[in-house]
Here is the input.
Amino acid sequence: VTTTAGRHRAWLDIDHGALAANVATLRGLAAPGTELIAVVKANAYGHGAVEVSETLTALGAERLAVATVSEAAELRSAGQDGPLLVLWGIGTEDAPAVAGLGLEPMVDNAAVVGALAAAAAQDGRRIGVHLKVDTGLGRQGIEPGEAVALARQIAGSSDLALAGTMTHLAAPDDASLTALQLERMASVLDDLRASGIDPGLVHVAGTGAVLAGVGAFADAIRPGIGLYGLAPVGHTIAGIDLRPVLTLRALPLRVFEVDPGTPIGYGMRWTAARQSRLATLPIGYGDGWPRSHLNNGWALVRGQRVPMVGAISMDGLVVDISDAGSVGLDDEFVLIGRQGDESITADEVAAQRQTINYEVTTMLRGRLPRRHHRP
Ligand SMILES: Cc1ncc(COP(=O)(O)O)c(C=O)c1O
Here is the structure.
């Protein structure tokens, strides 16, 4: 159990059994022998990077991937000493830390490659880098036509090794764009090999691509959201065993009755239309439950749906439990997850906020304790 100090009656339950099942499912969708690069950036999409990484490593994930050097440093401090990929671009000033921590950074430009070579020489230890090619996402990566020259710079340095070559897909549910991106990637790989350069571990597929069957293209898959039991929009997972890992729960701080006409919360954005029974839950936008749930959200209690009423505060919100029976201070509420026969999915919550499930889990703040349940 990881807790912040003090009593906080809203928390996340993290089901490591579900995480293990999802790893097996994703591996099963890739070709036999395909390696797993498990994406644990942004605090493992809100699930708790240190604990989730421990389970993933124990399950045999060949590599972990984070976005930033500071995320990597946190995992190194927690004892993760295996291959650790940094997916987002680093600056030249990060090179000494990358060398010191023994990380594998994504690279897409000569300046950073030069800085890494210098830092590796200084440190006396080789840095393995992953060359990223922009095959169509238009975000990070080197242009396909310039990839061989950068790979030559890497391969020509005795302080660097080309650990991998990667790209990222823009819309894995779009077969024609994906085919085009894969074609560009294949052509870069051909060019590298024709130049006598070993591209190292080739990896392309995040969760959407794995679900779309692209996992077979490369040596490793690189899923994030699927590990956590969720799928990107546009991908059906009917018949695929992905199990949500996270449940968001809270206990009420106050259960109270109000008369008809009583306004509730900041700005009086909800007024009781009848004699009402309400409960205050200690979770608000300071925990990552945003104000867009103003009169627009649900919780489960006693296996029933109850609506959120009024504005969301920084530290709390109010639900109308008038129709939920005799709810007391010991009754657990579920904001994301299952209770009895009812469930509220991260996808449903995302739709209420006009966002995607990634954002729903990732924005759950560190203030919420994570309770880790291992089988
Ligand atoms: C480069 C890269 N690879 C893999 C992933 C994981 O993607 P997903 O969470 O869709 O599986 C991400 C996530 O943003 C990414 O940026």
The pocket of pyridoxal-5'-phosphate is lined by residues 39, 87, 168, 206-208, 222-226, 232 (CB under 6 Å). The longest strand covers residues 160-166.
